[in-house]
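Thread: Newbie trying to understand structure tokens

Hi all, I'm a second-year student working on a class project, and my supervisor (Dr. K.) asked me to get a predicted structure for one chain before our next meeting. I've only ever worked with sequences, so writing a 3D structure as a token string is new to me. If someone could post the tokens and maybe explain what I'm looking at, I'd be very grateful. Here's the chain:
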Amino acid sequence: MLAAKTIILKMDCPDPDRLDRTVWTYTEGMNYVSAVVHNLGKPKGSAALQKIVYSALREKIGLKSQMSFNVVRQVTGTYRTLQEQVRAKKTVWQQIMYAPTSMTFSFGRDFSLDGDDIGLTTLNGRRKYRFFRYPHMEQYLDGTWKFGASKLVKHLDGTYYFHLCCERETETREVTKSSTFMGVDLGQNFLAVTSTTDRKCRFFCGGKAKDLRNVYSTMRKRLPSKGTRSAKRMLKHLSGRERRLMTDMNHRVSKEIVSFAVQNNVDVIGLEDLSGIGDRTKISKRRRYTHHSWAFFELQTFIEYKAREKGISTIYLDPAYTSQTCPRCNHISKNNRNGRSFVCECCGHSLHADLIGAQNIESRARTYRYTLEVQGCSQPPIRELSTR
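---
Reply by user tm_fold:
Sure, no problem. This is what the structure looks like when written as tokens:
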């Protein structure tokens, strides 16, 4: 199985103006290609689109050859995603505008690594920039990881960071040959609850995420009433700070979950397929912010790539009725659950509701293993990950 990781390298740029000009020109190229695709009314393949826009990107805008290829691939991918959302009736066909905050590089073509230096192709030729090395990133620079398409990102303070994407093959046990499973139930009272095949369980981050969101929600409600420019700046600052704190919390929780799986010799982690949950569920106005700010997809992504590095597979399962089903007698009823408590109205089995959900997910993971075996499959399809 392919394990992927994005390493964020802080760069030392004595000539940021050179990079600024390159990023601005690259963005101008993306906006030009975006306008072309928008006028076509539908996305085209990168090879066909390349023939239409290549000469303009090179001669009029002034991009290098590899930059032009990267622009076309990036815009093509964005509009394919937009087309899928249009088909799902989540949005309408529209022109996408890009901001000059990042650009893509291809390893071996327009960027390279040499010791503490990154070689980047700019509009003025190849330039080397030093990056700061930290102990935690040494394992990814020892030659065992392969580098792929990466991004140069400009932060709000003007500092440049290089998001280095690397990957390598890891050995994981086939799902059909696995014997120990773990279910992970995600929630808002507890960020995650886990249960293994031998009924070992653990609760993670009880109420901290919910409290954090409530604190920042209260602060945002108070600031707009002032209407001053400083209040607006503070709103923007709070938004970024809350997002960073939640991402850090998800990183720490996902690391603890995978460590718990390793300690209990888990072969497969079962996760809920929560895609589209925002459209399927009706939430009261009072709880709407808490629900929509729930970063479950980010947490699942972190769990998945950290598990891959440890040789543990992840599968996504139908979450329907996991908190209403009794794991002892399989009786399903809304009356089984009352808040955080679960009491089966049929057999009387009682337990914490989130733990019941984790046990049912683990049970479905085992059932999925036998289904794959009957169908003659060894591995389920792998969900695409968005790197961070």
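A couple of things are worth pointing out once you decode it. The two ends are 19 Å apart (CA to CA). The chain is about 40% helix and 20% strand. Feel free to ask follow-ups in this thread.
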